[in-house]
Structure formats: C-alpha cells, structure tokens
Write a structure and sequence with these properties.
The complex is a heterodimer. Chain A is mainly α. Chain A has helices at 3-7, 10-25, 33-59, 85-104, 113-132, 136-154, 160-191, 196-206, 210-226, 234-242, 245-269, 275-301, 306-326, 330-360, 377-390, 396-407, 412-442, 467-483, 486-501, 515-536, 544-551, 553-562, 567-586; strands spanning 64-65, 80-81. Chain A has 2 domains: 1-134; 135-585, no CATH class. Chain B has a two-stranded antiparallel sheet. Chain B is globular, with a radius of gyration of 24 Å. Chain B starts with a helix and ends with a helix. The chains are: A mainly alpha, B mainly alpha. Chain A: This is NADH-quinone oxidoreductase subunit E.
C-alpha cells in the first residue's frame, strides 16, 4: 500500500472526526475554536484531495477497499473509493470553497457557533464522500448526509420565509432521495452488485433492459433534482434566497453543481453500456440542458432580489454544464468539469458579495439599494469583475470551460441551438449581475421612486464584521479563477478526463480554436453589457432596445408565476419531469 | 397553479409513467425468485470469516461499515439540525412550568404511574444495554439498543416529573456522549490504518460464534453507535420536551413554577 493509498479515506474521515470533537466538547471550547478548527479542517481536506488528484494523475486511479473487502470472484461485497484526478480535483475545490465560506462567516454565528460548525463539517465530509466513492449505495448515503445538513442550514434564520424555503427544499429533495433509492434497488435487482465497475459490466451485458433503464431514470431524476435542472429546479431559488449567505455560497458553488457532477459520473462510469441511457442523455437531456440555460438566464434577468437573481443564474449555468455533458463528447465533459470549478469560484464570490451588502446595508433589493454601495466600492469592483466573468469574458478558468463546452457542440441544427442557448444564458446572467453592480455601487439607472419600497422581508445578516475579512475570500476565489490561464484549464481538463471517463490516455484532444470559439465569448460579453446598459440607461439608448426587452416581459412574468412557492405545485412539476423521462424511455 | 389543474396534471403524469412502470415491473425478477446474490454471499462467507451469527450486524459494521459511518453522521446532522431549528425558534424565555391549555385541569400524577416507571425505567435501560451488547449474536444492535436506552430516560420524566428529568438528563452530557460515540466509531476505523491496513479492517480477534464478544472490531464500532444513538435520541427528546414549556410571559402565577412538573 503506497502512501497515496493511505490518504484516500481522510478527506471524509478528517472532517467527520473534527465535527464529532467539536460536538463533544461544545461550549467548553474557547470562543473562536470551532470556527478555527472548521477552517483548518477544510484547508486540510482541500490539500489532501489535491494530493490525491495529483497522485492519481501520475500513477493511475487508486482503488481503496474499505475494511479490506476486495472483490472475490463473482461477487463484489465491499465499498471502494476511487479518487480519479477529476473527482479528487473537484473534491479539492470543494474544500477550498468551504474554507473561504467559513472565513467569510467568521463571527456570523456566534450565538450557535458550535452547532453551525458541526453541520458545516458534516456537509463538507458528505460532499467529499459523494465525489470519491464508486459504490451506488455509498453515493446515496453521502447524498443523504449532504441533504440533511443542508435542510437545517437553510432554515437557519428561522423567519417564516426561511422555514418555508427550507421545507420546500426538504420535500422536493427527499422525494428525489426516495426515487434514487428505488432506482438503486432496480439496478441491484438486475446487476446484483452496487460497485460501479461491477454494475457497469452487468449493464453492458443487459443491453435493452427496462429494469436498467428504469433504474437509470430514477437515479438521474434524483441527481438532476439536486442539480436544479428543469423541471426539478423549483426548490432552488426558494432555498438559496433564504439561506444565510455563507451557506448559499456552498449551495450554489458546490452542492448544486456536484449534483450534476454525480449525474455525469453515473452516466459515464456506470451506464455507458446502456443504449437507452445514452439516448436519454443525448436526446432528451441535451434539449433540457439548452432549455434550462435559457430559462435560468431569463429568470435571473427579471429578479430584483439579489439572492434570487444569483440563484436563477446558477440554474442557467448548470443548464450550460448539462449541455456539455449531454453532447456525449469527451471534450464537452472536460469542459463541463472545468466550467463547474470556474462557475463555483465566481458564483461563490458573488454570494459572499451579496452577503456583504446584507451585513453592511441590511438589504438585498436591487432597486432599494440603488447608489447605497458607493462607500464600500471595493465590493463593487469585485462584483463588476465577477459579472464580466459570468458574462463570458475570455479570461480564466470559467472561460476555459465554456470554450470546451462550446467546442463539443454537435454539427447541424442541434449545435446551433446549443450555441444560441449558451449565449443567451451567459449574456442574460452576466448582464443581470452587471446591472445590479451598476445600480447598487454606481447609482446608475432611473430613480425607482415608490417602486424602491418593495414588499420584502426585513433582511439583515450579522453586521459589525470587518469588511476586509469578508472581502479577502472573495479576492482569493476570483483571483484563482482569473489567474488560471484558460488554455491551461483546457489542457488540464482534457488530461484528467481519461481516467474519469475510462478512456485511453491522451485520447481527449483539445480542438484547435475556430472562428466561432474566438467570437463567442465576445458576443456573450457584448450581450451582457447590452442587457445591463439597456436597463441602466433606459432614457439614453434608442427606444427600440427597451421595447425589445419588454417583449419578453410576459414570457418572463409567466415563468415567474410558475414559481409559486407552493410545495404541491413543485411536486406536480417533479412528477411531470419523471413522466418526461418515462415517456422518452418507453416510446 | 389552480387546485383543479394540479390533480389533472398529476394524473397526466401518472398516465405517462404507467407504460414504463409496467414494462419495468414485468421485467423484474419474479416474485419469490432466489434471494439476492449479495445476501447469499454474505450468508455463505461471514459466519466462517467473522464468527458472528447476526448477519445484519456483520454487514452494517464490517462489510459495509463505511456506509454505517455515513449513516451515523447523518443521524448526528439530523440531531444537530433539530437542535438548531427548535432551540432557535423557541428562544430563551422558557419557564420551568409546563405550558397549559386554558381551562384544562392539572391532574396530579398517580402513585401507580410513579411506581411502574420506577420499576420499568431501570429495566428498560438494562434491556437497551442488553440489546446493544448482543449485536453480534442476536437480532438488535447499537441502533436499536441506543433508542431503547434513550426511551428509558423518558420514563424518568413520566415517573419523577419534569424538574427531576431536567436535573438528571443534562444536555452537555448528551452532546458529549453523542460526539464521543461518533468519535469512537471513527477511531475504530483508524486503528487498522495505524497498523498499515485499510480503514475499518477488522483487526481484533473474532472470538467464538454466538458469544457476546464475537466479531472483533465490530464490538467497538457497535459501542460507538450505541453511545451516539442514545445521546442523539436523548437530545432530540429533550428538545421536544422543552417545546412543551410555557414562555415566561405565560407564567403569571409563581406557584405554577413549582407545581409545573406535573404538566
């Protein structure tokens, strides 16, 4: 057993142990000890997973059988971790994001300090386990730990809205969990195993088997519910809008995206041998991804509650990642992975910056806050930069991912549909954030008058935290995204992919840039600036532009009306989503 | 969505799911067909390999012990979340007295109840310990035993009243027991790592089958689960019971504070 093998369980075991210690000692610990322990554990986890990723890249993916239960001929009993470079890399990014969020939250949760930190540590451990495991049931266990911790963290502020949001989140995601368990049961009924490798062999043997397809559909629905893909996305905005900002950072930056990551992993590591699963992924989910990108963008554009704005933009960006996965090309998958990390860095930063507004200005309403951010201009600069990155600026990790996703577009009409929806999604979300930066920090845009007094809840997060301490993690995360050159990101993504997707080494070639890949980011950026400009300089642009924007208003209003906040509706939508899968698989 | 549209759409969804459901149901292994390969393999291998007679425990603590660690901490997260939401929502202004519904009389506790609780309480506790200790030999184990132990604490409240229950069942102690139990499970997993083996490898002597002390490392893991579950359920019961207390503003009569334990 090499040293690398010894390290494999520790990204999960370390935060669990620290969480148990913090719980056991509770209030006996010195004042800031739980927070410091949490940050140290998150950094250690990031380091451990990074070492695992690097080691796997050089020496191949280690397979770690817990309890020494290695497979015996014909039957695989034990649970294994397989930290391939991509999975461990994502896990390392998650550790970093937790460390940043915990630094940002320093002093936030003084009243309930140890409980909050215990939950965050368990949340972190669960995500690590989710990324590293190669066992279907173990995946479900970590999925559940993640959910349970997340439900409690959402309802944290105990206002009516936050409890309602947490309840919607809990009901929709618990339904997803039950479907996942049922799906795993179906897969097990046919494969007689839970280990990814063993199941993959059984799936390959089974061919067109309704049981396998049924299992794939149910597991996919659960993971796509977590990933907030249409029509399973309804819980997300409700939950993100009410969760405390440091928790929203984790939700949007890692929890939701790794739902998609888990889905991609299942698709390429467990079900590649099922032609029906391939048809669902390439046919149905490709279209769903495009629709999610556009709808998420439109909804983000139409919000004035900043956390809801960012929440909907997350939906749009996850849609873009799904198109990368569903393009069924290794390049698209590599792009989706790089995009996941880049998006997490930028979106995590943006939620922290909204948290700064909540702490300093006690508000999250765009119109209400107009011009109030001038005295905290450094936050404004960062918001502007993040908006440009989100809007497709050809710079850094996020752009590298977007570039690869775009290069994976299929030929013909489907490819153009994908380009168009990615472009619209990117421009609208980037433009929405840019508009909010301009309005809040520069005081641009028409005076809202009475409209500023929106019927929003009184929202404030714990004030009196030092501004520099809140901005430092933002600068760190944005800095990482910007400083990683886009082409390096592309090559790394392509290099780590073969072990993730079981391809021959070196089989993923980064395609040479084409005319379109050079133009696309600039088009998106132009679109984002135009979207923001039309909103902020309504009186000074040709009148046709605001009128054109107004044409979409009824559509967007209709979409917004569907987000009723009534859990019954969300469950019906979810049932329709399952029906969509069932109908595609049957007919 | 209107209340009329909702069931219509749901019915539509069900209609679309039905053909697929039917195809899957028809293709499943027949009812009563041979049990799963996993169960067969475990039944064939484990009595020999681990000398235990409760196969469920052997799966939970040995073959798939890592799942159980996850489930253990899932419980911990659920308890921490419950505490967070209930305690925060309740605030700090709870009095010692029980909350009362207007006009309902407070009936004093009958001597028979006190007697039964004093007899049953300790026995329930011991039974919980018994169930937990014999995890490897007979049905039961740390999860079940821990829940029984936590329930026996509730008999203190029933027999002795709220004040005594709060005196005897202390929240920092429960937290410490819960955390220490979870930590014990993790430590059991780490022991083989220090010996150069995989996490959770069963390194202790297995003992003889059907003996209370069979199963090697599983005994330690089971003890950890017992502590964590007893502490966790105890904490949840405590939080639920605190919900029944009156707020300070509701307690007008100072006498109520002393007699409140009958509520």
């Amino acid at each position: 057993m090499t040293l690398l093998d010894v390290l494999v369980p520790f990204p999960v075991v370390l935060p669990l142990a620290v969480g148990a210690i913090v719980l056991a000692l509770g209030e006996r610990l010195p004042k800031h000890a739980p927070e410091a322990l949490g940050i140290a554990a998150a950094l250690a986890v990031a380091g451990l997973s990074a070492v695992l990723s690097r080691g796997a890249l050089d020496a191949g993916t280690p397979v770690y059988w817990f309890g020494g239960w290695e497979p015996r001929p014909g039957v695989t009993l034990g649970i294994a971790f397989a930290p391939d470079p991509a999975s461990a890399g994502i896990a390392a990014f998650i550790g970093l994001l937790f460390a940043a969020a915990l630094v940002f939250a320093w002093g936030f949760f003084d009243e309930v300090r140890s409980t909050f930190n215990v939950l965050m540590l368990l949340f972190l451990a669960a995500m690590q386990g989710f990324c590293l495991t190669r066992d279907l049931f173990n995946l479900f266990v970590w999925f559940e730990v993640m959910s349970v911790a997340a439900y409690a963290l959402t309802g944290f502020s105990l206002k009516r809205a936050s409890l309602a949001g947490a309840l919607n989140f809990t009901v929709v995601n618990s339904l997803g969990s039950m479907l996942m368990l049922a799906g795993i049961g179906l897969v097990y009924a046919r494969a007689g195993a839970l280990d990814f490798e063993a199941v993959r062999e059984a799936v390959g043997r089974a061919g067109h088997d309704p049981v396998i397809v049924g299992g794939f559909c149910l597991v996919s629905v659960a993971l796509l519910t977590k990933a907030a893909i249409l029509p399973f996305q309804f819980w997300l905005a409700d939950a993100h809008a009410v969760a405390p900002s440091p928790v929203s950072v984790i939700f949007s930056g890692s929890m939701v995206p790794i739902g998609l990551f888990g889905f991609a992993k299942i698709a390429v590591q467990v079900f590649p041998g099922s032609p029906d699963a391939g048809s669902i992924l390439h046919g149905l989910l490709f279209g769903v991804g495009c629709a999610t990108a556009v709808v998420g963008g439109l909804l983000a554009w139409s919000q004035r509650h900043l956390k809801r704005l960012l929440a909907f933009s997350t939906i749009g960006h996850i849609g873009i990642m799904l198109t990368g996965v569903a393009a069924l090309s290794p390049v698209g998958l590599a792009g989706a992975l790089a995009y996941l990390v880049g998006h997490g860095l930028v979106k995590g930063t943006l939620f922290m910056l909204v948290g700064v507004l909540l702490a300093e200005k006690a508000g999250v309403d765009e119109l209400n806050l107009r011009g109030l951010g001038r005295d905290i201009w450094p936050a404004g600069v960062l918001t502007g930069l993040a908006a440009l990155l989100l809007g497709g600026a050809p710079l850094g990790l996020l752009h590298g991912g977007a570039d690869l996703v775009s290069a994976a577009a299929p030929d013909g009409l489907a490819g153009w549909a994908m380009h168009l929806s990615v472009l619209v999604g990117t421009a609208l979300t980037g433009g929405a954030v840019l508009r909010f930066a301009g309005r809040v920090y520069l005081g641009l845009g028409p005076d809202p008058g009475d409209e500023a007094e929106a019927p929003t809840d009184e929202e404030q997060e714990k004030a009196d935290r030092p501004l520099w301490l809140m901005l430092a993690p933002c600068i760190l995360l944005l800095g990482i995204d910007v400083l990683v050159p886009a082409d390096l990101a592309e090559h790394m993504a392509a290099r780590v992919l073969p072990q993730f997707a079981h391809l021959a080494a070196g089989s993923v070639a980064v395609p040479p840039p084409t005319g379109w890949t050079a133009v696309e980011p600039w088009l998106a950026l132009l679109g984002a600036v135009a979207v923001a400009g039309v909103a902020l300089f309504r009186d000074r642009v040709p009148r046709i532009l605001p009128a054109a924007g107004g044409m979409f208003k009824p559509v967007v209003a209709g979409l917004n009306r569907l987000h009723t906040g009534v859990i019954n509706d969300y469950v019906v939508w979810m049932a329709l989503g399952v029906a969509m899968f069932a109908a595609w698989a049957t007919f | 969505m209107s209340p009329k549209l909702r069931p219509a759409l749901l019915a539509l969804a069900a209609l679309a799911i039905l053909p697929g459901f039917w195809r899957v149901a028809c293709a499943l292994p027949g009812f009563g067909s041979p049990v799963s390969p996993y169960g067969q393999a475990v039944n064939a291998l484990l009595p020999e390999m681990r000398r235990v007679s409760n196969m469920v425990s052997a799966i939970n603590f040995d073959v798939r012990g890592f799942d159980t660690i996850g489930e253990e901490f899932m419980l911990l997260a659920a308890v921490a979340g419950t505490v967070l939401l209930l305690r925060g929502g309740r605030g700090e202004d709870r009095a010692d007295a029980g909350g009362r519904i207007g006009g309902r009389a407070i009936v004093p506790r009958a001597d028979a109840v006190v007697l039964i609780c004093r007899i049953c309480g300790p026995f329930t506790f011991i039974f919980g310990v018994y169930v937990a200790l014999h995890a490897m030999a007979t049905p039961g184990g740390g999860f079940q035993g821990g829940v029984v132990i936590a329930s026996s604490l509730l008999l203190i409240y029933l027999g002795e009243g709220y004040g005594r229950w709060r005196q005897l069942v202390r929240e920092p102690v429960l937290d410490a027991v819960e955390g220490a139990g979870a930590l014990l499970f993790v430590a059991a997993g780490l022991l083989p790592v220090f010996l150069g083996l995989r996490f959770l490898t069963n390194v202790l002597p297995f003992g003889t089958a059907k003996d209370m002390l069979s199963g090697g490392l599983m005994i330690v893991e089971n003890a950890g689960v017992t502590l964590a579950v007893a502490g966790g359920f105890g904490t949840v019961l405590l939080e639920f019971m605190e919900e029944t207390r009156a707020t300070t503003s509701e307690v007008a009569d100072p006498d109520d504070g002393r007699t409140g334990d009958r509520a």
